């Protein structure tokens, strides 16, 4: 029973990781930029989720608004911060991204206060008994359910639509994609919109699980997501999904069995180092 | 159809081709020949907008393309079969064709796929297969099929026979011949000078980034000294 509980908890955490890391992978795959400021969008999503829920009483509306607004914010971030730097070496974009992330934490602190916000009445806090003695919170079910739905929607978009095919072609060879009429600027906007709205969904869900959103909540998300995309193989969507779930489950078991030696984050990075020693290209990356 | 006037292009400060001019009518084939590094492929890439154009004019049916981006040029009727095929290896054969037909509506897309499969039946059998797993010949067929998806008026073909078995090259040239009958204008860059001259109505010889001879293929054949030296150039390669 304990194993099953730990496994489910791991999947819940892994689903959150997947939603955050996927946006990072999408941006890296298309532009070869390490989009550290992605974590700021995650935090922004959390704030919008709490504020809209408290104002309207509708968690569903809050989720939709957060995904839309943060998706647009991601597009704006690309337009203003990354697009002017595309012709520069990659570390220039990385520095800009880190600066954006640090600045955003301060902006959140100034705008919403240093102590964070909570739901006035936290939604989905009940639980159901799946079988004898095994309980699952509604919020945890929502995390897994929504993550699965969003992943399926992304898979459908990228595999079954002309837009998705054009998107994947652009990732492989942007010049050739352009030569056949793909508007790569639109592809980049779409990429940032989807990645950012997924991060927003993760932010809203984390705020729901912890009943708290605070200015620095993106810090752990930023370095954990970077670890995940390296672990999965830079730019590999499948690798990111596998690494996210694997890391979630590993952390879940690790905190119980080796928690007295390593804390949760240390377990994640120890695992990352171990995998990279055996497979430097990550779990699903191509040969280096 | 295609009118190029005093076209110069290159990469930053490096001039790849200068003062290229020619006129090509519907259903005509222009072969650009020359040694490696002469500027043939760069000229072709410049026509499709992928290499920087310094000056000059490119017109398709009187419409100026010089200021248009690659994604806009294909809408004016120019499509390319690039050197090295440059298919999308992680996409299936069918998906590669779908990218090629990015600018056409759904029904034209289906017709385009059918056309590609009729030209190259092997692609129909492999339509769900990843393009990167195809043989070199099949990849070339896919590159041609993909370029035809947008129903081009002008087809740019770069080094089509490079590294392919003669039988596959024959098959590809048969398709070009059929396109010629269907009034598609073709600009052909080809290392295999003999094949290039056989297919051509017009010939452009480029040496060191400049045109050193141009005229009809017939005129070239009646200039035995040059004709033989060009064939020698091919054998030398």
Topology pattern of chain A, helix = H, strand = E: HHHHEEHHHHHHH
Shape of chain A: globular
Rg calc of chain A = 19 Å
The top-level CATH class of chain A is: Mainly Alpha
Greatest contact pair? Answer: A-B, 17 and 26 residues
Compute the number of strand runs of chain A.
Answer: 2
Quick one: overall form of chain B? globular
Number of domains of chain A: 1
- Overall residue-averaged pLDDT value of chain A: 92
Radius of gyration of chain B: 17 Å
Q: What is the succession of H and E elements of chain B? A: EEEHEEHEHHHHEHEHEEHH
Compute the number of helices of chain B.
10
Distance between the termini of chain B: 33 Å
**CATH class membership of the largest domain in chain B:** Alpha Beta
Structural class of chain B: alpha/beta
Query: Given the structure, what is the number of helices of chain A?
Result: 11
The CATH topology label of chain A is ABC transporter involved in vitamin B12 uptake, BtuC
Taken as a percent bin, the fraction of beta residues of chain B is 25-35%
Q: In terms of structural class, how would the helical and strand content of chain A be classed?
A: mainly alpha
Question: How is the topology of this model organized?
Answer:
The complex is a heterodimer of chains A (288) and B (237).
Chain A: H1 2-31, H2 38-56, H3 59-82, H4 90-112, E1 127-131, E2 134-137, H5 138-160, H6 162-172, H7 174-179, H8 184-210, H9 217-232, H10 237-257, H11 264-278
Antiparallel strand pairs in A: 1-2
Chain B: E1 2-11, E2 14-24, E3 29-33, H1 40-47, E4 52-60, E5 63-64, H2 70-73, E6 78-81, H3 93-100, H4 106-119, H5 121-125, H6 136-148, E7 154-158, H7 166-181, E8 185-189, H8 193-199, E9 202-207, E10 210-216, H9 217-221, H10 224-236
Parallel strand pairs in B: 3-8, 3-9, 6-7, 7-8
Antiparallel strand pairs in B: 1-2, 1-4, 4-5, 9-10
